[in-house]
Design brief:
Number of domains: 2
Shape: globular
Strand order of the largest sheet: 4-6-7
Distance between the termini: 86 Å
Order of helices and strands: EEHEHEHEHHEEEEHEHEHHEE
CATH architecture of the largest domain: Orthogonal Bundle
Helix content: 40-55%
């Protein structure tokens, strides 16, 4: 038998049986917590280790789909595979840790030569460590995120393992509204980064059918160097026309555009988006 004085100065007596029950409860509770954690690990490992299929979807917030960032097409492909492995309905930030991407998946989804795949993946994973993205808010406010917090390449296994920035969790998982979704099938044959970025933005406003933005905003979201192509004619020839040719030929949407003038000078671009249910062919066919 044990006793102690409580805060009110009165004495509480605990029997040995009480203490044993308390310890038993703590033990059972601890085991239940450990089992729950282990079950979560099993679920997350199953989600991330499942091989990616062409019919899998990339799901992200609309804000992320319209964010500003610079990367190569290969880096974008790697990011799409990583995001496609997430369960967007499961609001658990641990999903963003240690996402494995195999060379087999990369080769199969993007139809690239096996002898190039390993080097492409390794280099892309390394470069992604230095990539940032900017999400604009109202007025002149914005938030800058690093994309990854860790990246490693396992040569013998032919696997890249990346950990996405946990601060991006709200932009990638647990989404209920204001999100963009597209299948890998509709982007896997793109050969231009500009095609991937324009497509992504258009999918975020597909239900509206019309999307307009300034030339400056367009360049910031699509070009590696936003200072290039000061003449709209050059932007049209080098970026817009080639990208829309790929989108309209290879994806599930049709996109057209028209320049918008202000004081006789082209200042904005107005895009129109419609669904395209026709069977797509490769540009090389």
């Amino acid at each position: 038998m044990m006793s102690h004085i409580n805060g009110e100065g009165s004495m509480t007596i605990h029997t040995t049986e009480d203490l044993l029950k308390s310890k038993a409860f703590d033990f059972i509770h601890q085991k239940a917590v450990e089992a729950e954690k282990q079950q979560k690990v099993v679920v997350l490992e199953r989600v991330k280790s499942r091989p990616v299929q062409e019919t899998d979807s990339v799901v992200e917030s609309n804000a992320l789909a319209r964010a500003e960032y610079r990367m190569t097409l290969i880096e974008k492909r790697l990011m799409n595979l990583a995001v496609a492995k997430l369960d967007s309905s499961l609001a658990d930030a641990d999903q963003l840790q240690d996402i494995p991407i195999t060379a087999e998946e990369y080769i199969r989804i993007y139809d690239v030569a096996p002898n190039n795949a390993y080097a492409e993946m390794a280099q892309a994973a390394k470069r992604l460590m230095n990539r940032q993205l900017t999400i604009r808010h109202e007025g002149k406010s914005y938030t800058i995120y690093n994309l990854l917090v860790e990246s490693n390449y396992r040569e013998r296994e032919g696997i890249v393992v990346i950990t996405l920035n946990p601060r991006l969790a709200s932009q990638l998982i647990g989404l209920r509204d204001r999100f963009t979704q597209f299948m890998l099938e509709n982007v896997r044959r793109f050969r231009l980064f500009s095609s991937a970025r324009i497509y992504e933005m258009m999918k975020s406003v597909e239900s509206q059918g019309v999307f307009e933005l300034s030339i400056e905003d367009f360049k910031a979201r699509v070009l590696a160097d936003p200072k290039k192509y000061k003449r709209f004619a050059d932007l049209k020839k080098r970026v817009l026309e080639p990208a829309l040719a790929e989108i309209n030929t290879l994806s599930d949407i049709q996109v057209s555009y028209e320049p918008v003038r202000e004081s006789r000078k082209i200042k904005r671009i107005r895009f129109r988006i419609t669904q395209d249910k026709q069977e797509k062919l490769s540009l090389t066919e």
